[in-house]
Design a protein that fits this description.
Elements lengths: L4 E8 L4 E2 L5 E2 L6 E7 L5 E7 L8 E3 L5 E6 L11 E7 L6 E8 L5 E6 L5 E6 L4 E6 L11 E4 L19 E2 L5 E6 L4 E8 L4 E11 L6 E6 L5 E6 L4 E8 L4 E9 L10 E7 L5 E7 L3 E7 L6 E8 L5 E6 L5 E6 L4 E7 L6 E8 L4 E7 L4
Antiparallel strand pairs: 1-4, 1-30, 2-3, 4-5, 6-7, 7-8, 8-9, 10-11, 11-12, 12-13, 14-15, 15-16, 16-17, 18-19, 19-20, 20-21, 22-23, 23-24, 24-25, 26-27, 27-28, 28-29
């Protein structure tokens, strides 16, 4: 039997950047790191670095497993006030990435991208300027110029973080008829109907859901059933749970819960939120508390019950990901420059550290793929 490995891509900050908080991150990353993870032990091995890529802060792999996409979290690109998005050919054996093409995204600090299941389009969120765009994907995996660009409007009560819109992520519902975009600056998660034929986004019948003022929604994720979705609030260190009616696209908030233990004193913000593949457990990362909040998910009503707060073994867990079967979780600690691998107890969701990899500098994204699936 062939020994199984997963392929892991890590996005990084490779150029100094000023964040929305006003903090300056003095980047040490060297582009996109390609690693292998032993599917049995969780051990990580560095395979290749794509050197010189400008702030490739988020990545996604085409379904053909031959093309990788990344955002370029920039304030200017080719003289434009804009970030960018890139497409790379990917050589499986060597891990080598070769740039196919790159397009401006029309807004600053392109921070997140998502691909629909058929990989017909790339959907990009521009954080600082608070806008979104859609780029058609050609047969060879390269990108066309944007077919849609939308500028969010609005603000929130925080005078530093919420003076304008800050689109942070794209997420699809289970049927991929609608796209959801949490906007930290507006305290809203915008909902769009997707027109795949024309590569456009149109406001849904329910155009958004609102969080409590000053919470700052960052990312969201859908339950595998499609009946519930969960928004992690960066500034409020909390999660909002919504029931969701797929046919009409109707969403209704049913729970608001903290991501921090009751006795925590200090400053912390949330980052990523993801489900275990079995749908029984939900995880969210705390930057400051430097932990992964773990929740049990009710099969009946989707409500969350806290289980544990697992230290991530480093500082500022910007992102994390679970392997396709949910045996391991990798936490990417941006400010301590390491990746920490945890085994996941299938029946309880509890995490136990099994390995770590140092000198992965200013990591902003980690994504695990099974190239044989």
């Amino acid at each position: 039997m062939k020994h199984k490995n997963y392929t892991v891509f890590v996005g990084t900050y490779s150029e100094t950047i000023k964040l929305g908080t006003g903090e300056i991150v003095y980047a040490k990353g060297e582009g996109i790191y390609t690693l292998q993870m032993d599917a049995q032990t969780g051990a990580l091995t560095l395979l290749k670095k794509a050197l010189g890529e400008p702030n490739p802060s988020y990545v996604a792999l085409h379904k053909n497993k031959k093309v990788l996409y990344s955002t370029n979290e920039l304030k200017t690109y080719k003289g434009l006030v804009s970030g960018a998005v890139s497409a790379f050919s990917f050589e499986r054996e060597s891990g080598k990435l070769t740039l196919l093409n790159r397009w401006a995204t029309g807004g600053t600090d392109a921070v997140h991208l998502a691909l629909d299941k058929d990989c017909t389009h790339a959907f990009v969120a521009n954080f600082m300027s608070g806008s979104v765009c859609v780029l058609p994907i050609l047969e060879d995996g390269s990108l066309e110029r944007p077919s849609c660009f939308l500028q969010h409007k609005g603000s929130g009560p925080n005078p530093i973080r919420q003076t304008g819109p800050h689109a942070h992520q794209f997420q699809f519902d289970r049927l991929q008829r609608r796209a959801f975009v949490p906007d930290l600056g507006c305290d809203k998660t915008f909902i769009y109907e997707i027109d795949y034929e024309n590569g456009h986004l149109n406001a849904a019948k329910q155009p958004y859901v609102e969080t409590e003022k000053g919470q700052g929604p960052r990312h969201c994720v859908f339950h595998p059933s499609g009946q519930f979705f969960y928004v992690v609030n960066e500034m409020g260190s909390s999660i909002d749970v919504y029931s969701y009616e797929e046919e009409q696209g109707a969403a209704n908030r049913i729970q608001h819960i903290t991501t921090l233990p009751e006795d925590f004193i200090g400053h912390s913000t949330c980052a990523a939120i993801k489900f275990h593949p079995n749908g029984k457990f939900l995880y969210a990362s705390n930057r400051g508390h430097n932990s992964l909040a773990t929740y049990q998910v009710s099969e009946l009503d989707g409500l969350l019950t806290p289980i544990a707060y697992q230290p991530t073994g480093g500082e500022t867990p910007r992102d994390f990901d679970l392997d396709p079967v949910g045996k391991f979780l990798i936490a990417a600690n941006q400010d301590s420059n390491n990746l920490v691998v945890f085994s996941v107890e299938e029946s309880s969701g509890h995490l136990t550290e099994v390995s770590r990899l140092e000198d992965i500098f200013t990591a902003t994204c980690v994504a695990i793929y099974d190239l044989d699936a």
